[in-house]
Amino acid sequence: MFLQVICDILYATQLLNDEIVDKIFKIVSGPLEIMSNIMKSIWLLSLGLLFVQNQNYIMGTITLLWGLLVIYYMNILIYYVSKQRKGIKPNVIFINIETFVLFVILFIGILVL
Q1: What global pTM score does this model have?
Q2: Is residue 13 predicted with pLDDT exceeding 70?
Q3: What is the dihedral of CA 36, 37, 38, 43, to 10 degrees?
Q4: Which residues does 18 contact at the CB level (< 8 Å), separation at least 6?
Q5: Quick one: three-class SS letters along the chain?
Q6: Least crowded by CB within 10 Å, which of 5, 64, 76, 77?
Q7: At what angle do helices 18-53 and 2-13 cross, to 10 degrees?
Q8: Over 60: is that where the pLDDT of 1 sits?
Q9: 44, 32 Cβ separation under 8 angstroms
Q10: Spatial distance between the Cα atoms of 32 and 35, rounded to a whole number of angstroms
């Protein structure tokens, strides 16, 4: 989000060529967003363990299963880092739907618990 604001400012002020701004955004935003999704998945794994320890088995199981997406995000990071483009190409629609459903599940969990 922060990078998007910077790129929007550069577009509006015309300090740099539009092509250069696009290249900067593509180089930095992809791996940075994937690393934040990896951190989110690790947080979900620890949250799931906490739910299970507090005997909330349904929420614990859901968050633990959702946290296993860390494997998917690691493969996407490998895709960005490797020069041969090994790994999985990111699916933006899947990532956005996954994040939306995750927060809906957590919101429902807050209301129920």
Answers
A1: 0.72
A2: yes
A3: 90
A4: 11
A5: CHHHHHHHHHHHHCCCCHHHHHHHHHHHHHHHHHHHHHHHHHHHHHHHHHHHHCCCHHHHHHHHHHHCCHHHHHHHHHHHHCCCCCCCCCCHHHHHHHHHHHHHHHHHHHHHC
A6: 5
A7: 160
A8: no
A9: no
A10: 5
Neighbours of 60 (CB within 10 A): 19
Closest CA to 30 of 84, 91, 105: 91
Which residue ranges make up each domain of the chain? 2-112
